[in-house]
């Protein structure tokens, strides 16, 4: 077996081609100390070395050194949730996030998936990154939910036996409310402090429109002009996280174009996975001479909504909310973006609100983009584990900052038989600013303005 050369180019005949293989220097940073093991969801579930970050890095090294890519090798990379808890835990600063994304792009180019797996992935990517197609699904979903047919089908267990991935997709669908379209520009209340662009997202915009409305209202109340570019589409996060590099780059270019034309000072995101990807556009588009500099400038403007509100500081009056909330750190907010303190500061700044921490908070809930559809069994186990820890807090409401987490945790808590309110962080702050009753959050009704 040959050695990895200085430039990190893969040995011919091995797992990887020469277009951005896993970086040999980054692989060399891993000293196999094991600090990542207790934070890795799949290692916690199975205790298998090759389903830990250091095990997957070892496989990357083997691939660079000439080991061919096979089903077994790919299965260990596919099993990774991409939660990046290992990045937070690593004392050596190993950039596992970069390594797994480089590896997954290689897998999608160089590995032939089974027809059933390929068809499922094709279906997912024909729907989820397309806001208009997702909105078309709202009608049929609302009919199923209002008639109770969704629960009836679920009780039979037939879909789960025949197509567990499709059953997982159906079970995750949130209860749909009315659409809440936003105007292209919303003027700040009082003195204007900033002009920001709002990413409305794919799943967020179609299934959680109330989150976008709440985000716009809070930003407006805190002195921001809010611009909602009408031509924005998918940010490319799902594509990036699943190795679909070219597709992700196309989405990223379109987003850069849309927000450049809007002329905003900051770009605000309320979905953790989208924010982590948009902050990484400089790397994603680094090889494109027409977009490299523009992508770098764009990425520097991206802020999670909790970050921009923390930077601006509060001016709008917070009304009391007498309730307890358990805050769940979305992985791509806490681990990928390092945003932990700001959401907690927003919540604890609300009079009467009690914040409760969740045991094993660093462990992923099992959502991980489309992981809970592709891998329903381990995702369900992680979801149930997370739900048990959330219920144990005794909180009135579970709060998080990502639509995937909301869907995953809601389904798991429903299975637990201990229903509770569910809300995005910004919905809680919005309720406080509007003086809405705490009962609206406990009951999950989230009344609109």
Quick structural overview:
The protein has helices spanning 24-28, 41-46, 53-64, 71-78, 85-89, 96-110, 115-127, 131-147, 149-156, 158-162, 164-172, 203-207, 209-221, 237-241, 245-262, 272-278, 281-284, 292-301, 305-312, 331-334, 341-348, 371-374, 376-392, 403-416, 425-434, 438-442, and strands at 185-186, 194-198, 224-227, 266-269, 302-304, 323-327, 353-356, 397-400, 421-424.
What do these coordinates show?
The protein has 449 residues and is of the alpha/beta class. Helix content is 52%, strand content 8%. The chain has helices spanning 24-28, 41-46, 53-64, 71-78, 85-89, 96-110, 115-127, 131-147, 149-156, 158-162, 164-172, 203-207, 209-221, 237-241, 245-262, 272-278, 281-284, 292-301, 305-312, 331-334, 341-348, 371-374, 376-392, 403-416, 425-434, 438-442, and strands at residues 185-186, 194-198, 224-227, 266-269, 302-304, 323-327, 353-356, 397-400, 421-424. Strand 8 (397-400), helix 24 and strand 9 (421-424) form a beta-alpha-beta unit. Helix 13 crosses helix 25 (425-434). The longest helix has 18 residues, at 245-262. The radius of gyration is 22 Å and the shape is globular. Residues 20-50, 70-94 form the 4Fe-4S ferredoxin-type domain. Component of a complex that catalyzes the oxidation of glycolate to glyoxylate. This is Glycolate oxidase iron-sulfur subunit.
* Structural class computed from helices and strand pairing: alpha/beta
Strand content: 5-15%
CATH C-level class of the largest domain is Alpha Beta
Order of adjacent strands in the largest pleated sheet? 1-3-2-4-5
Question: Which fold does the CATH topology of the largest domain refer to?
Answer: Rossmann fold
What summary fits the major beta sheet? Answer: 5 strands, mixed
**Spatial separation of the terminal alpha carbons:** 65 Å
Low-confidence stretches: 1-7, 445-449
- Whole-number tally of structural domains: 4
Count of DSSP strands: 9
Overall average pLDDT: 90
Into which percent range does the helicity of residues fall? 40-55%
Gross morphology is globular
Separate helix tally: 26
CATH architecture of the largest domain: 3-Layer(aba) Sandwich
Query: What is Rg?
Result: 22 Å
């Amino acid at each position: 077996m040959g050695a990895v050369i200085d430039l990190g180019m893969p040995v011919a005949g091995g797992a990887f081609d020469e277009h951005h293989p896993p970086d040999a220097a980054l692989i060399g940073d891993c000293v196999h100390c094991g600090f990542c093991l207790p934070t890795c969801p799949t290692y916690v579930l199975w205790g298998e070395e090759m389903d830990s970050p250091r095990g997957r890095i070892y496989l990357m090294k083997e691939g660079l050194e000439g080991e061919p890519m096979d089903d077994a090798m790919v299965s260990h990379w596919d099993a990774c949730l991409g939660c990046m808890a290992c990045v937070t835990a690593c004392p050596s600063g190993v950039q596992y996030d970069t390594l797994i994304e480089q590896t997954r792009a290689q897998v999608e180019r160089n590995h032939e998936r089974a027809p059933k797996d390929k068809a499922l992935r094709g279906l997912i990517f024909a729907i989820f990154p397309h806001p208009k197609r997702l909105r078309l699904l709202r009608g049929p979903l609302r009919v199923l939910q209002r008639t109770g047919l969704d629960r009836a089908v679920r009780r039979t267990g037939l879909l789960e036996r025949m197509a567990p991935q499709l059953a997982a997709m159906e079970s995750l669908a949130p209860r749909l409310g009315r659409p809440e379209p936003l105007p292209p520009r919303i003027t700040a209340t009082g003195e204007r402090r900033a002009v920001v662009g709002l990413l409305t997202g794919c799943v967020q915009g179609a299934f959680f429109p109330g989150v976008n409305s709440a985000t716009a209202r809070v930003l407006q109340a805190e002195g921001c002009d809010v611009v909602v570019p009408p031509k924005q589409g998918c940010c490319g996060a799902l594509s990036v996280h699943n190795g679909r590099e070219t597709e992700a780059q196309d989405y990223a270019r379109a987003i850069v174009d849309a927000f450049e034309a809007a002329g905003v000072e900051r770009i605000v995101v309320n979905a953790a996975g989208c924010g982590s990807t948009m902050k990484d556009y400089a790397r994603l588009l680094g090889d494109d001479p027409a977009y490299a500099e523009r992508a770098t400038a764009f990425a520097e403007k991206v802020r999670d909504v909790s970050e921009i509100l923390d930077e601006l500081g509060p001016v709008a009056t917070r009304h009391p909310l007498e309730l307890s909330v358990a805050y769940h750190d979305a992985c791509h907010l806490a681990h990928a973006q390092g945003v932990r303190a700001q959401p907690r500061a927003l919540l604890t700044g609300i009079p009467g609100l009690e914040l409760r921490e969740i045991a094993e908070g660093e462990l992923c809930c099992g959502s991980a983009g489309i992981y809970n559809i592709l891998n329903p069994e381990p995702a369900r186990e992680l979801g149930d584990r997370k739900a048990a820890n959330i219920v144990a807090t005794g909180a009135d409401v579970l709060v998080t900052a990502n639509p995937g987490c909301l869907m995953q945790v809601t389904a798991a808590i429903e299975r637990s038989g201990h229903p509770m309110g569910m809300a995005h962080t910004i919905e809680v702050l919005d309720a406080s600013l509007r003086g809405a009753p705490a009962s609206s959050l406990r009951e999950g009704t989230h009344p609109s303005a």
